[in-house]
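Researcher: Re-running this chain for the archive, since the previous output was lost when a drive failed. Same request as before.
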Amino acid sequence: MTSWQLLYRLLKGAFPDTLYHNERKMTSFEQKNGDIIIHFGEDQKDKSCHLLMGSDGARSIMHHQLLPQILSSYVKYVAWRGLVDEKVSSKVLDIFSNKFNFSIGKKTHVLCYLILSPNGELSTGMKHLNWVWYVNTSLKDDMFKKVIVDKNGIIRALSVPAGMVNENIVKEQKTIAHDTLPDIVSASCFCNKRVYTKRFMIYLFLKWHLIEYV
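Model: Regenerated structure tokens:
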């Protein structure tokens, strides 16, 4: 398995820094005289190119402009995600090395697998155990209303980034993990005392659907 950080760094390094427009947000685009004109908003110069590819996530500007009739809705499950240093426990090596692990329960499942370190390290003890715990959570559930609020009380629309997850919610979820997940998964991942809350992330999953205008 690889890691997001490694892929990001390799792909980013394929182009010189001068071709990146950091801290600039595309607001719209248009085709003109065979080129594509990218608009960055007020007081910022437009840019032209021959090919424009969009990979700007669930709130894609390109998606909205090209397919405004396709909207998203919540699909009733939340994913908790975290990273554990491979060297935290020898059991991590014995149980999770060279395997893609699934654990399935009622209205939930969790997967665990080793990934490279952010620097691409392959040596034993330097990799990370990546785990993702999917939990069915409807909009009416009290837990849903809690998980979308970060530690500063701000409601998050799509995800709560690492370092911003409410620690009280983490404590509640650890109790659920202890009661519902396999012991090795619970102990090695979510409930490990050396796994800090700053490495927890929460994602809300969406589906896309067509809205027909009458």
